[in-house]
Amino acid sequence: MQIAISGGKGGTGKSTVAINVAVELAKRFKLILADLDVEAPNDHLLLGVELQNEEEVNQFMPKFDYSKCIKCRKCAEVCEEHAIITLKDGTPFLMPTLCSGCRACEIVCPVPGAIQEGSRLIGHTYVTPTPYGFTLVTGKLREGEERSMPLVVAAKKRLKNLDYELLIVDTAAGTGNTVSKAIEGSQLLIAVTEPTPLGIHDTELILQLGKLMGIETWVVINRADLGDVNEVYERAERYNAKVIAEIPYSENIVKTYVSGTPIVTTDYPEAEIFRGIAERIYKFLRG
After folding, report:
1. Which domains does the chain have, with CATH numbers?
2. DSSP reduced 3-state for 218
3. In the β-sheet with 119-129, what is the strand arrangement from edge to edge?
4. Are the CB atoms for 221 and 236 separated by under 8 Å?
5. Strand pairing report for 119-129 and 166-170
6. pLDDT beyond 90 at 7
7. How confident is the model at residue 174 (pLDDT cuts 50, 70, 90)?
8. Is 287 or 170 the better-scoring residue by pLDDT?
9. Higher pLDDT, 12 or 271
10. What pTM was estimated for this model as a whole?
């Protein structure tokens, strides 16, 4: 089973919801939490753990054997990223930061061995045990890298080798291809939003994505007392999504956020809201 916790806008509190729900559901399932916000993973910080079991993620990068290259320019012509340029005589050169690793150049090259296997480090994945009874899988993009999709794919591939009953995916902000890839395979999508103009706008985008992917979608409104929640309800109803919780702005939540302590492990009254979200997810998964 897999559920995804997302939100069109950054900073809405999706990671806060994800880690607290994971702590609660780990009492009932063998669970993995996957932090697939690979450009800015922070679930480990909110859980107060240090990332462990690092593995490199490398991406294909062509290496030219100029002794075999016939300077036909086909590699440059097929490169949609324009990562390969050619001199007047057809000699190819690669601009590594533009290369997506698609291998199209290798496929169209008419001379065996003219383009050889190369690679470059683009990031790392981690598998970290937590003191809350579940495992955290994290993808982390290397600084300066622009393509996050390979990290999302690598992290999902790594977690498939682990034993679990329930996977909770914490996605990046937005609705791009890395978010849809992270959500892929989920039975439930929980969109965490805030009742601000930008939050409401981006919530509609994630609701559209959930509808497009055919996934049941719920909405959690964070900092619900700081804006127009009625507008969120209206958008949710438009896409047949349920608003399952309203979380007020709370200094207690901020304190636990800063200290790296899930609020559900405390006796703060706000903890009951997150426990309620976890209970609804449990009932949904059990049918």
Report:
1. 2-57+123-285 (3.40.50.300), 62-117 (3.30.70.20)
2. strand
3. 55-60, 119-129, 135-141, 31-35, 166-170, 2-6, 188-193, 216-222, 242-247
4. no
5. unpaired
6. no
7. confident
8. 170
9. 271
10. 0.87
